[in-house]
């Protein structure tokens, strides 16, 4: 009765359908037929799911956040906008904004890249021999498409008009890209597969354009916000919340750590030395982490000394009385090898850290002490920085786990495309975890203590951003003929020059931004500036923080 029946007649159509179904992954390609499915399942469906869950649970604050004004203040609150006390009061007790609004504002980042990518690909396709991404025309276009939408969105001016303009511009340039040459046999191997096999070497890590753009965009947003928050033109609903809630600046801080973890995975990946794959020992990783941390910790000490000496305004509930963000960044590379020594799987280590930390926070007196304790000793005075470091470490490890997936060169063309699935899996896992903590357990995100919902929100957002960048690159590059898609691409095609310069010296850019922020606040009464004056100062500041990175890039110098 059982077993194989060799006399069974097989239907050729069914056999062909089974073969095609089992081998679809080998010949998958982003085109007009598959793109709608990817968008629907990767963007539209998760977005609708998120909207439905958030709206039914009544967790989002969809109404406008009232801006603090002198007229509405209590008589005991300082009323002079030029005093340190007023500036500290202004950014205290903020509630943030809704997740919907935050993601709408930051969608301009993706749309800006889409516009630039489509225009660059169309121009390169028309005349590859004469294309140059380093011309003044391209520089002006890059500044226009990346900086202007950022200014408009983050200052709450014409957000929907900006989004509509970016979508229209992207569609216009997208239509100018010719379709790839017709392949008579759509199941034949992709012509680009051979170039992948020939160029692959185990342990080799080449720059990934989507990673460079992702990191540079996050850095540019972070640097802009740290000064813009001191001007009235910047809505306070985008500033850091007091304890619980979400805002763009909260997301920016976490994104800075997560993106550092993505590229920090290089330190734990096997390296190719003299043709052999070599893995670093624990001592070598600790020594490398210490040398990486030392200059950042020195910057943290210098920042503390400078801010105390000039009596610069600071918000104690942000990181603590003496702690600052440089200390958090500096300690991360030292602790990562210790976490790896406990468990080789970064995802397990990070999830365990978050679950244990959140359990201690929610189920023990630790949470009440963190929120309400007096600053009577060094630990209590800096409890935000000390205990949030656990969450940031877990977030950094989550970024490293994603970096282990996307940093190494893909051995085959199929493996490269399967990375889309890997990143989408990280996004989905983080999204589900965020829903579980926020909407099922009722725990709100807290950047102040870097709790589990906050870490999962940041990880999910960054994985989603990276996935969309990868889809855009794959979609646009698939339109190019094979000879243009792999070889002979000039500088300025893969990555915009301004973003490549920032990515190559990201820490230097962040340091310059902090120094300029302090200098401008000491020389300019930012809260007395008009809208025009504020935009001029912010525009000049943005160009100033880009200038050192551009000069270093032009001189082929890479610091950090």
The amount of helix comes to 55-70%
Q: Largest beta sheet: what is the strand line-up? A: 1-2
Distance between the first and last residues' Cα: 70 Å
So what's the overall shape? Answer: globular
Q: Which secondary-structure class do the elements indicate?
A: mainly alpha
- What is the residue-mean pLDDT, rounded to a whole number? 80
How many beta-strand runs? 2
Tally of helical runs: 23
Please state the CA-atom Rg, rounded to the nearest Å: 25 Å
Sequence stretches where pLDDT stays below 50 over 5 or more residues: 58-73
Describe the overall structure.
With 560 residues, the chain is mainly alpha-helical. Helix content is 65%, strand content 1%. It has 23 helices and two strands. The chain has helices spanning 12-22, 24-27, 35-57, 84-90, 99-126, 136-154, 159-175, 193-199, 209-228, 248-264, 282-309, 316-319, 325-342, 346-363, 366-372, 378-381, 383-406, 413-440, 452-477, 482-486, 497-504, 506-523, 531-554; strands at residues 271-273, 276-278. It has a two-stranded antiparallel ribbon with strand order 1-2. It is globular, with a radius of gyration of 25 Å.
């Amino acid at each position: 009765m059982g077993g194989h029946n060799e006399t069974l007649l097989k239907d050729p159509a069914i056999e062909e359908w089974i073969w095609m179904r089992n081998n679809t992954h080998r010949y998958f390609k982003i085109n007009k037929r598959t793109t709608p499915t990817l968008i629907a399942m990767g963007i539209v469906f998760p977005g609708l799911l998120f909207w439905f869950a958030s709206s039914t649970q009544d967790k989002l604050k969809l109404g406008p956040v009232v801006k603090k004004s002198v007229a509405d203040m209590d008589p005991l609150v300082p009323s002079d906008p030029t005093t340190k006390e007023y500036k500290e009061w202004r950014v205290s007790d903020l509630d943030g904004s809704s997740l919907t609004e935050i993601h709408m504002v930051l969608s301009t980042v993706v749309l800006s890249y889409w516009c630039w990518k489509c225009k660059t690909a169309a121009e390169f396709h028309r005349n590859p021999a004469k294309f140059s991404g380093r011309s003044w025309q391209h520089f002006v276009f890059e500044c226009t498409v990346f900086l202007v939408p950022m200014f408009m969105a983050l200052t709450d001016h014409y957000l929907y008009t900006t989004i509509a303009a970016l979508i229209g511009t992207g569609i216009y340039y997208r239509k100018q890209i010719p379709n790839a040459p017709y392949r008579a046999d759509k199941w034949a191997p992709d012509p680009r597969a051979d170039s992948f096999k020939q160029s692959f070497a185990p342990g080799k890590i080449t720059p990934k354009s989507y990673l460079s753009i992702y990191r540079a965009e996050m850095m540019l947003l972070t640097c802009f916000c740290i000064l813009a928050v001191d001007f009235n033109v910047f809505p306070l609903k985008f500033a850091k919340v007091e304890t619980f809630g979400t805002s763009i600046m909260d997301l920016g801080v976490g994104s800075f750590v997560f993106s550092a973890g993505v590229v920090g995975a290089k330190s734990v990946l096997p390296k190719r030395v003299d043709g052999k794959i070599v893995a670093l020992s624990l001592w070598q990783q600790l020594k490398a982490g210490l040398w990486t941390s030392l200059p950042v910790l020195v910057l943290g000490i210098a920042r503390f000394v400078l801010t105390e000496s000039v009596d610069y305004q600071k918000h104690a509930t942000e990181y603590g009385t003496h702690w600052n963000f440089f200390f958090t960044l500096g300690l991360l590379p030292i602790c990562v090898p210790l976490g790896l020594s406990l468990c080789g799987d970064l995802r397990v280590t990070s999830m365990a850290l978050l679950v244990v930390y959140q359990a201690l926070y929610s189920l023990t007196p630790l949470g009440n002490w963190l929120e309400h304790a007096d600053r009577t000793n060094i630990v209590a005075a800096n409890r935000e920085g000390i205990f949030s470091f656990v969450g940031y470490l877990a977030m950094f490890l989550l970024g490293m786990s994603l970096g282990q997936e996307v940093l190494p060169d893909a051995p085959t063309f199929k493996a490269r495309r399967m990375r889309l699935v890997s990143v989408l899996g990280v996004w989905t896992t983080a999204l589900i975890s965020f829903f579980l903590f926020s909407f099922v357990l009722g725990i709100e995100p807290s950047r102040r203590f870097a709790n589990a919902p906050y870490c999962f929100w940041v990880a999910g957002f960054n994985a989603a951003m990276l996935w969309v960048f990868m889809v855009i690159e794959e979609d646009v590059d698939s339109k190019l003929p094979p000879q243009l898609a792999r070889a002979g691409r000039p500088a300025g095609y893969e990555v915009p020059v301004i973003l490549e310069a920032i990515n190559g010296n990201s820490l230097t850019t962040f340091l310059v931004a902090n120094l300029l922020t302090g200098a401008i606040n000491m020389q300019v009464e930012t809260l007395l500036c008009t809208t025009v004056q504020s935009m001029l100062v912010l525009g000049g500041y943005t160009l100033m923080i880009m200038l050192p990175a551009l000069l270093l890039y032009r001189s082929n110098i890479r610091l950090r």
